[in-house]
Amino acid sequence: MAPPLRTPHLNLSSILSSQTPQIDLKTDAYEASARNFLKALGDYTNSAITKITRRRDAHDAEKKRLLDKAQLIQNEANQCKLKEIDLLAALERQQAEAKEAESCVSTLRRQVASLHERCAARDAEIEQYRVAVANLQRKKNDKRATLDALASQVLLELRACEECLQSSIEGVDQDRLLVRFMFDGLTDSPRECSFVLDVGGPDYHVLATTPALPLLPILVDRLNETRNIFSFIKEMREQFCTSLI
Predict the structure, then answer these.
(1) Is the pLDDT of residue 22 over 70?
(2) pLDDT-based confidence at 156, cuts 50/70/90?
(3) What sequence ranges are listed for the domain Chromosome segregation protein Spc25 C-terminal (predicted)?
(4) Whole-Å CA distances, 101 to 94, 105, 112, 114, 115
């Protein structure tokens, strides 16, 4: 705190005797005192404003917290009311469903009795079908035995045909035959020649040959005219043999 200002003592006679009379009013000290007072007043004002602001912020925060809590409680109360409404509606639905279920049970009992009667009739029909299926199975087994016998005979004929044609014949796909020839002695090492014949359509087609044959189109045209696959295989063997010489 600044020391109190004292009233200066003036020597009026000496001032008047001076060539340039002048009174020192000590304004510097007064201004310094005034500045200190204003600074102290500003510091106090700022401190008071800070305290008021802090209290106001705390009050606003507490007020907001209470409002949020009240809103939360109100929301929970509204949710409880909605749940209560839903539960009452569910209870009404369950009561209505219970009445409907009782009616359905009575209807189902009547339907079950009717089903028992129908099942008894179906059991009799099933027994008839079983007898018919057993008869069909016996006929199927007889046909299968016949087909197996034919297949064995065809296999023997195929082997005889392969020996006659000096070839190997096998099915590679539906309606397609792979015919292979093995030539030994014509070259330094054994060579295999083959072709794939498609017999599924109205006209025969050769899908692939190894190696390629220049006269293949003529041979295929002759095959479609004669429909003689045996002769065609013999001609293909001769052409392959000629191409290797």
Answers:
(1) no
(2) low
(3) 172-240
(4) 10, 6, 16, 20, 20
Q: Three-state SS for 115?
A: helix
How many helices and strands, by DSSP H and E, does the chain display? 4, 4
205: buried, middle or exposed (CB in 10 Å: 19+, 13-18, 0-12)? middle
By CB neighbour count within 10 A (0-12 exposed, 13-18 middle, 19+ buried), where does 127 fall?
A: exposed
Measured over the CA atoms of residue 86, residue 91, residue 92 and residue 96, the dihedral's sign is positive
Q: What is the pLDDT of residues 50-83, one digit of tens each?
A: 999 899 988 888 898 999 888 889 898 888 888 8
- Nearest Cα residue to 169 out of 244, 241, 229, 213: 229
Average pLDDT estimate for 202-231? 92
Residue with token string 């005797």: 17
Alpha-carbon dihedral sign for residues 169, 170, 176, 181: negative
- The candidate with the shortest Cα–Cα distance to 156, out of 194, 193, 148, is 148
Token pair, residue 112, equals: 């079950």
42 has a pLDDT exceeding 90: no
Contact yes or no for 221/244 (Cβ under 8 A): no
What are the structural domains, with CATH classification, of the chain?
167-244 (3.30.457.50)
Helices 27-165 and 229-244: crossing angle in degrees, nearest 10, is 110
In the chain, the percentage of residues whose pLDDT exceeds 70 is 82
Q: Measured between alpha carbons, how far is 166 from 54 in angstroms, rounded to an integer? A: 113
